[in-house]
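Trying the structure run again after the queue cleared.
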Amino acid sequence: MGTGKRGLIATAVAVVCAVTVLAAPGTAFANPTPSPTPSAALAAGKDLEAVRKKLDKLYRAAGRATDEYNAAEEKADKQSAEVVELAKKIVKGQEKLRKLKARAGAAAAAQYRGGGLPPEAHLVLSDTPQDFLDGAGRVREGHHATKGLLGELTRTQEDLEQYAKDASAQWKKLEAGRKAKAAAQKKIEKQIAQAEKLESALQKEEQERLAELEKEAANKAQTAWLDSGILDEIDGKASEQGKKAVQYATAQIGKPYQWGAEGPETYDCSGLTSQAWISAGRGIPRTSQEQWKQLRHIDIQDMRPGDLIIYFGDASHVAMYIGDGAMVHAPRPGRTVTIAGAGTMPILGVVRPDADTGAN
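Done. Tokens:
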């Protein structure tokens, strides 16, 4: 959050306290060539497959926490803006109230200069009928003006009190959001630290074999997905916006993954997809879970380049389909934006950001 916004929020708090005293086709992913068998020494040593599964579990947990962090950050930004707007209303209301009170004070002073007598008494003391009639009209106007002034004073005071209550409520929500964001950050850092510690304990040969095991697992999943015949059914053409989104996402290949990042140098999974679609002229939810909840669901066989593939039962990962059975995504910490097989992870479903447009 920038210093300017922090300054506005700080001002808002002070005011509240005072008042209340997101087209490049991918390469088709064919059946992979089997990787070499691990050496007997490694097989007899650490159970690297168990390590791979443990790492996958840790990084998935970090991915879920990243979604929580991004959601909390998005909510906090919105609540901050609401607090600032309420603060502006409070300041304007205070100035209006000051002017109204000044007018009321002037009216009271005028009455004092009139000897403290009410307007009706002055009428009784009029020398001529015309003076009486003219005075009567002024009294009626005066009554209306005074009544209107008092009514405006009351309404302004009530508005200020309501603004103060609303700002206080929004501030409490903002504080709760900050706590949720901090808690999510701790979860992310804890999971990543455990994963990095586990990886750093491996010898170089073990790390190389672990990388092979990861590729084997991904290739096995992609092969099973392709063997289902699904690619024979997927022949959707990208929309113009979809092409732009794919161009943006593929242009980020090689850039590092960073949780909570939305570019331009680093990305997390939903940061990549959301920015790609923003570049195509369509804003979409920031997190993979909200993308799954809010965007239109599409049958897998109807996928077209630009559509988003949501992974795992908790919708904790998202990638962009680019055609030919491939997707582009920001995988996890320690990895870079890359192209992979669309079936390398369990697919929850597919969503389409531009469901209201046709393909070309």
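DSSP finds ten helices and six strands in the chain. Worth checking whether this holds up in the mutant runs.
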